[in-house]
Write a structure and sequence with these properties.
By secondary structure, the protein is mostly helical. It is built from 18 helices and two strands. Helix 3 (about 45-60) runs antiparallel to helix 16 (about 365-385).
Length: about 425
Amino acid sequence: MTIDRHTLRNAILDVIGEGIWGLQAGMVPAVTVLTVLLTRYNAGNTMIGLVSAIQGGLIYLPQILGLYIFASVKHRQRDMILWHVIGILPCQALCGILVLFEGSLDPFWLRWGLLALFSLFSINIGIIVGVWSEWLAHMFSTNIRATVMGTGFSLYSLLGAGGGLVAGWWLEKSPGYLTYSWLFLLSSAIGVFSMLAFTFIDDPAVRLPYASEKPTLRDIIIRFRASLADWNFRVFLVGRVLVSIGLCVSPFLAVFYQSPEGGRVPDSFIVMCGAAMTVGTAITTVVIGRWGDKTGHRAPIIAGAIIQALALAILLVSSGRASCVAAYLGVGVCIGFGFISHTNMLYETCPHDDRLAHITVGNIVMTIPLLVAPVIAGFFANRCGIRPLFAISLLISAVAAVWFIVFFREPRRMGSGRGGTARTGSQETTGRSTLPG
């Protein structure tokens, strides 16, 4: 595999940007820091379930807005970086400021305030996620895209593990609310440095003589219908939804290990286990990226669903600190499989010339079940307990694996997908995608 100097430079900057973003994300992950804070402010299982609903649904649902907000291909790089600095990162800073008022505000306002800010954060991410994917897609060809993506996400995960260890150590030394506040504020500041790396990426679109026009509603509907008319793409979406539903219980891991049934693991140790989660992701992303580039992503998708079922099985048979580390490590491995293989498969199932519309409709279709499932999970946990909830998730994950094995076909061998071709201005491009955070 040979890479020209221009592509190599862009790849290095992308990897650096991803890594720095991972550092800040690892300091305040929703499944550990936010969940621990919500339980600190008397949140119940239903509210904990909302964390997954927001993290899944609200990141997918607003993507159609990105088609209009970032319609200018020529200025897309600039506009998206500003969106991160002005719209996304301040939400984390405001979380830190809100926590400062722990001594003077009722826990009701603290928990709902944090959830509202997390919702705004997720909406802003959702608006940009599809466009960010398409922006980076034209820089890397299909035969190296997953490798570059895997390398970037591996560094994201490793530095995220470092951020999680720092956060856990800090909370162990200073367990008060001021530490949580500083974690949010510091992560927001670090995120700005991540965006600086992406600023230096050489985007060929900035040299286009014009900016693209905003798509019409008719154009969008035509592309959406063409995507959904593809049988293999519909099969992929069903499997992807099943896998996502199976993993939507991840915020309940913190609740489980805080409980007597889970071994009353200290909050600081749970936060440090967020580092184990990101290490699990780092272990898998580079290997899976290269695996998928060489053979296609169907086999990694199946392997990821099987490993997800095994990771959930840990929660049914063990408790305590060792179990906590193993469970978060397993979830991290599953995230690695999902991010690399599922994301690249979304591009490669595109049956027409507008990859951005294909990405958008695929993610929108997944929105409704990912909004509803975690809320249902919260109600189920209240009535039946958390371990039965984990058992249901294991079963759904196993069904997903069987579904992919029986029904899904590798697009590269079918010839139905275009490997993610897309129109950007006056040119057709082939590419990859990744999103910081």
